[in-house]
Amino acid sequence: MRVTGRVLTSPAAVFIFALIARFKVLTDLLPVHTWDGYYRYNEPAHIAWALASGFGYSAPYPNTPVAPTAQQPPFYPLLLAGIFKLAGVYTYRSLWIAVGLNAIFSAVTGVLILRIGRRDFGTVPAVLAAWVWSCWVYEAAVSVRLWESSVSCLLLMVGLLVLPTLAETLSPKPWMLFGALVGLAALTNTTLLSVFPFFWLWLWLSYRRRGRTCNRMLLASLAMCVLVLIPWTIRNYTVFHRLIPVRDNFGLELWVGVELGSGRPGATVGQPFARDFPLSDPTEYNRMGEIAFMESRSRMAMQVIRRHPLRYIQLVAIRCFKYWSQPVGTPWILISGLAWVGAVLFVRRKGLGALPFIAVLVCFPLVYYITHTFPTYRHVIEPSVLLMAAYPVVMGLEALGERIRRERSAHVCSV
User: Nearest Cα to 173, choosing from 224, 229, 230, 116?
Assistant: First the structure.
């Protein structure tokens, strides 16, 4: 039992088993799905091809002109471009390096689940969540997509990890590093900008409750974040002659959700896309250019929403349900329900201390409710979801065990 306990609570064991599970999935997927499953319709890979081929940050879609883009945040395409330079453009070896890195990022995330969970939720919920993350084939498969989600997931968990340290120190270095982390997260997955401001808010409230102030460090951290974002914003302004802090595709994503909700058939490219989505039919994108195309789709989406507001509200409600329940046939609807129960219990126990985790559950999905959703969009917050879900399960089992012990004790005394 002691050996088993040491293994279950061992960060090294969590990391190794997570890595084994992910590489097992890769050995099954890569030989068969290298082109169609990873490269063919992958926007970061197309941009990486353009970068590695000397065309600059451009061409996110196949069958389109090689022209500048702001469709993707820059970090992950730049990472892929470096791999393409090292191991060849669109090669099998490059793919193994890229998804192998994602597997490592995801395995490290498992270690952070264990560490953060033990600190904030207790050892047993932490162990349960970490091992589900490490050994569940679903998590392994999603984490090794050719996408930024594994990096984003890791960055979010690092943010959660360092918050208590920032709450105890006004030393400039950790606050500046946190600001840089937020900037990097925004350049990796822009949706994370919906969460990190609440981390700053939590820090400010934590100091206020103790009669202290962190205003100077908070402003310095914000400034560092802006400083990280500025070069990319300047690049976008120079290229497109308008202010685009990170990416320009919100209008298109909004239109995708409205169009798919209309019931009209879209093309199928591994998942249903709306008509006029460049992966389905790039004709309009090619004719208008990226900025004009994105703006036109935004206008079209808003026109439909204004004409049919009740239908749009229905679509948002449907997406809320889908976000927490898909994929169909998996236990995610149960896990999500447990996570929300855990969130309520966690707030009752920790009060203000629960704010960062509640912000993750509440704020990150909002953009997907508004636009459109797909099961893999939840992956970035799934470590937090698993921790929240494990919490009421363990509390319930502990309460049940305590009740059984009391009943046995009462029975012995009565005898």
Answer: 224
CA angle 265, 268, 272 (to 5 degrees): 65
- Indicate the SS3 state at residue 10: coil
Where does residue 77 fall: left (phi above 0), alpha (psi -120 to 50 degrees), or beta otherwise? alpha
Closest CA to 356 of 387, 310, 326, 332: 387
Q: pTM for the whole thing?
A: 0.94
The predicted pLDDT at position 1 comes to 61
User: Where exactly are the structural domains of the chain?
Assistant: 149-245
* pLDDT > 60? residue 264: no
Q: What is the pLDDT of residues 307-329, one digit of tens each?
A: 999 999 999 999 999 999 999 99
Partner residues linked to 58 by β-bridges: 68
Dihedral in degrees, nearest 10, Cα atoms 176, 180, 183, 185: -120
Question: Which amino acid is present at 356?
Answer: P
**Residue whose pair of structure tokens reads 């310095």 in the numeric block:** 220
Give the tens place of pLDDT for each residue, 385-397: 999 999 999 999 9
- Average pLDDT of every residue of the chain: 93
DSSP 67: -
Count CB-CB contacts under 10 A for residue 62.
Answer: 15
Rounded CA separation 202/350 (Å): 13
What does 313-380 look like in DSSP terms, one character per residue? HHHHHHHHHHHHHPSTTSTHHHHHHHHHHHHHHHHHHHGGGGHHHHHHHHHTTHHHHHS---GGGGGG
Inform me whether the pLDDT recorded for 270 exceeds 60. no
**What's the gap between Cα 99 and its chain centre?**
16
Give 330's contacts (C-beta < 8 A, 6+ positions apart). 138
How far is residue 200's CA from residue 364's CA, in Å, rounded to a whole number?
15
